[in-house]
């Protein structure tokens, strides 16, 4: 991708100045945890698309038109980190973004993380989810989605970046160590 930032030092410099950041990546990759920490470090609003846009209590999906309206309201603000996938909303998010952080962990790690999360948090609502959306053990459909994310979803994200955010810098984080190093550069005490 033409605007890739590959060095952690360069990513930290761009992140330190960015005030509107889109974070996406495969479920289980750690994007929500990273986004929450990053929002705290740079002092901007953290927005979980799962909690604030996609889901109503009890795993009821919000209407697509309402989702788009909420996203448009959020991106009109001056400072935010939006954590979530949904490539169909990149046309709203990317034109306002200063930076994209693509959490691109190995698929085995993502699968391991969603299974572990299912065991550890079963019956609880995670902080990045809407109230009443209780964590469940992942079914085969969700595991397959995670396993095939790179093949099935990444082309749509790449096309969305090309069409709606060609000039937006992109940082790809491919390991937990990359995430830690980047956060440490921004806030050595974190």
- CATH homologous superfamily, by name? P-loop containing nucleotide triphosphate hydrolases
**What oligomeric state do these chains adopt?**
single chain
Average residue pLDDT: 92
Structural class: alpha/beta
Strand order of the largest sheet: 1-8-7-2-6-3
Biggest β-sheet description: 6 strands, parallel
* CA-based shape: globular
Shape-level CATH architecture = 3-Layer(aba) Sandwich
Give the percentage of residues in beta strands.
5-15%
End-to-end separation in angstroms reads: 30 Å
Considering DSSP H and I runs of 4 or more, what fraction of the residues is helical? 40-55%
Q: Which radius of gyration do the C-alpha atoms yield?
A: 16 Å
User: How many domains is the backbone divided into?
Assistant: 1
User: What is the number of strand segments?
Assistant: 8
Organism: Rhizobium favelukesii
InterPro entries: Cytidylate_Kinase-2 (IPR052922), P-loop_NTPase (IPR027417)
Protein name: AAA family ATPase
């Amino acid at each position: 991708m033409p605007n890739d930032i590959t060095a952690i030092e360069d990513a930290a410099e761009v992140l330190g100045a960015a005030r509107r950041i889109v974070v996406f990546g495969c479920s289980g990759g750690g994007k929500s945890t990273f986004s929450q920490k990053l929002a705290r470090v740079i002092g901007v609003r953290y927005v979980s698309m799962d909690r604030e846009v996609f889901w109503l209590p009890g795993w009821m999906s919000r209407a697509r038109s309402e989702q788009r309206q909420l996203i448009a309201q959020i991106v009109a603000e001056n400072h935010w980190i939006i954590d979530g996938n949904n490539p169909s909303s990149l046309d709203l998010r990317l034109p306002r973004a200063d930076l994209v952080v693509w959490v691109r962990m190995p698929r085995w790690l993502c699968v391991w993380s969603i299974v572990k999360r299912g065991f550890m948090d079963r019956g609880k609502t995670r902080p990045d989810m809407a109230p009443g959306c209780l964590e469940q053990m992942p079914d085969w459909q969700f595991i397959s989605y995670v396993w095939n994310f790179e093949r099935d979803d990444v082309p749509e994200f790449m096309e969305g970046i090309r069409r709606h955010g060609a000039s937006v810098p992109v940082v790809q984080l491919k390991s937990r160590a990359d995430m830690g190093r980047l956060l440490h550069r921004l806030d050595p005490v974190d």
